[in-house]
Write a structure and sequence with these properties.
The complex is a heterodimer of chains A (291) and B (294). Chain A is α/β, with parallel strands linked by helices and 291 residues long. Chain A contains ten helices and eleven strands. In chain A, the strands form two sheets. Chain A has an eight-stranded parallel beta barrel, surrounded by seven helices. About 2% of the residues of chain A have low confidence. In chain B, strand 6 and strand 7 form a beta hairpin. The chains are: A alpha/beta (291), B alpha/beta (294). Chains A and B meet through strand 3, helix 3, helix 4, helix 5 and strand 7 of A and strand 3, helix 2, helix 3, helix 4 and strand 7 of B.
């Protein structure tokens, strides 16, 4: 079994939105030997009173970098670090613009981009962007097909409820098909990942649903006759709880589930200096070792 | 470094670099070293196939290599950090306003406040169709978009109930450093020029002849006057093609713009795609020296 790729999530909510913090974090984890960095995506943030208490807590109203322009900045600030969107909420954006911007990030980073996409949960964000929340799953499926076509074909012609493309294309196209992964939690969304994506980003944690999610993913792959193909699976570990020994246990559990990628998430504490995040990540990286 | 008080820019030669990122990088850092104040890039998200579309003759098509302007600027913000970055122009009505606000704010943060958002309505219905936006109402929609952008730049939580926009107690964060980003308008129709005079922070005149440009400026000032705006609150960025003109003509045009109130001038070496392009950087270096000696 080949080694698992270990990366870190940019603490988008906790470092303040300065170019210095972004750069320092990315260069820091690159120096520490991490394989990838992932950035999450929220285009607009609603006022806290718009949410129930759980959501308000989950999405603190704080500055965060925009994912594709932020990764473009990091393409110039790093050299080997793989760049991942984790995840970009695809159905609230225009498909053609996502195709164009992703191709641009991939070009500027010399092919280091993986697009993790998902359907999101925040109706208010869809409203603000003028897209329909209720049909986002179906729109998402159509978008994935169009992204792949725009990345590989000179001209695309396609017509459906959301798209009307007529012999039109983007240039430059990426030098290779950009890996397209799906992050999902619900059963039907996980099945979609098995059917449509190059890889699956699990949103669950070990002991809290991840095992069941991966089982759903595997079962659907088998049902589709894809079981023989190498599986690409990303898990994550919350470094906000537990100690080194538990992180190692979780990492081993992910390996047993067949994870190929593991993303470490440093604790969500209010505006920390980047060095505090890097220290936690370094400790975790050493505790986990080579899987 | 400004020349005679006019801030100088270089136009990113979109079609000359193909996928050669090293050349793009060198272009930006060299332009910075020569002493230009800003770099200006165009915007087309997608192009149509020319086949069976005679109306695309002489226009940009899917054969033209455009860097996506926000992503390019995110990259260049770290590569040439002293340059001001200018979109000249983003075709605003074909994009989602709130995403433009978010990405513009990000570029403002990454450039530490050195970003100017030039917008226009474009001309290509194929592009609007592919992006699923209405081509026909783009002028009116642009006006509402500008107002929505300004609101989103100013406050963390906003509510907007417009003809085309609904935002319910939401916003973007981080806000741009100064809680605003200059929004300039480019366009040649009278309605576009009047719109600029009424609501824009600046205007990009870019006509075929200086006489036409002068006529448009008269319209701009007329409209600004009607709107009770001070001329000094509206910037003017002219463009001079270094390839279509010789150095004597560069100087003549520079003087024309100096006399006609330009606050910014960008110099263009952009050409149609071809295997042997001009040496953009040599030309930009020469022109900067020629004009600096005026």
């Amino acid at each position: 079994m080949s080694a698992i790729h270990i990366g870190a999530k940019f603490p988008n909510n906790e470092t303040g939105a300065t170019p210095q913090a972004l750069k320092e974090f990315a260069q820091g984890i690159e120096r520490l030997g991490f394989d990838h960095l992932s950035i999450d995506d929220h285009v607009s943030i609603a006022a806290p009173e718009q949410f129930g208490t759980d959501r308000a807590a989950a999405i603190r109203v704080r500055a965060r970098h925009e994912v594709l322009t932020g990764l473009a900045f990091l393409a110039g600030a790093t050299t080997t670090l793989k760049l991942r969107t984790g995840v970009l909420i695809l159905p609230q954006r225009q498909t053609v613009l996502v195709a164009r911007q992703a191709a641009e990030v991939d070009l500027l980073s010399d092919g280091r981009l993986t697009m993790g996409v998902g359907i999101g949960w925040n109706r208010l964000e869809f409203d603000a962007l003028g897209e329909t929340f209720g049909t986002r799953g179906r729109r998402f499926e159509s978008q994935i097909q169009i992204l792949r076509q725009l990345w590989t074909e000179d001209y695309v012609t396609h017509s459906d409820d959301w798209h009307r493309l007529e012999r039109t294309g983007i240039l430059p196209r990426p030098a290779r098909p950009i890996p397209l992964w799906i992050g999902a939690k619900a059963g039907v969304a996980i099945q979609r990942a098995a059917r449509l994506a190059d890889g699956f980003m699990s949103l669950g944690q070990i002991g809290q649903g991840a095992e069941e999610e991966v089982e759903t993913y595997r079962a659907e792959r088998d049902r589709l006759g894809l079981g023989d193909r190498p599986m690409q699976l990303e898990g994550w570990i919350d470094l906000g709880s537990g100690a080194e020994s538990e992180w190692l246990e979780q990492a081993n559990a992910w390996r047993a589930l067949g994870a190929t990628h593991l993303t470490l998430v440093s604790p969500p504490v209010p505006i920390q200096p980047v060095t505090a995040h890097l220290e936690t990540l370094q400790r975790a990286r050493e505790a986990i070792g080579t899987l | 470094m400004a020349i005679a008080g006019i801030r100088m820019g270089a136009v990113f030669p979109h079609f000359s670099f193909g996928t050669n990122v090293a050349e793009m990088r060198t272009f930006a850092t060299t332009v910075e070293q020569i002493g230009y104040d800003h770099l200006l890039a165009y915007d087309h998200v997608i192009g149509g196939s020319r086949e069976g579309r005679p109306e695309l003759e002489g226009r940009y098509t899917s054969e033209h290599n455009f860097q996506e302007v926000f992503v390019l600027f995110g990259y260049l913000a770290g590569i040439a950090p002293s340059l001001e970055l200018v979109s000249g122009v983003i075709i605003l009505p074909q994009r989602q306003t709130v995403l433009v606000a978010k990405q513009a704010a990000e570029i403002d943060i990454l450039t530490e406040g050195k970003f100017r958002l030039g917008v226009g309505i474009g001309w290509n219905p194929i592009e609007y169709q592919a992006l699923n936006e209405n081509f026909r109402n783009r002028g009116k929609r642009l006006e509402e978009q500008i107002s929505v952008l300004r609101t989103l730049f100013a406050d963390k939580v906003v509510s907007i109930d417009g003809q085309w926009h609904t935002v319910d107690r939401a916003g973007i964060q981080p806000l741009p450093a100064k809680k605003s980003i200059p929004i300039w308008i480019g366009g040649s129709s009278e309605v576009a020029v009047r719109r600029a005079g009424r609501i824009a922070d600046g205007f990009f005149p870019n006509q075929k002849t200086l006489e036409e440009d002068a006529a448009n400026l008269a319209i701009l000032w007329d409209e600004a006057n009607k709107a009770g705006r001070n001329r000094s609150s509206i910037g003017i960025e002219a463009r001079i093609s270094l390839l279509d003109n010789d150095p004597e003509e560069w100087k003549r045009r520079f003087s024309f713009w100096q006399e006609n109130g330009a606050t910014h001038i960008s110099l263009a070496t952009i050409v149609q795609p071809s295997p042997t392009g001009p040496n953009h950087l040599d030309l930009l270096d020469q022109a900067h020296r020629v004009l600096n000696a005026l």
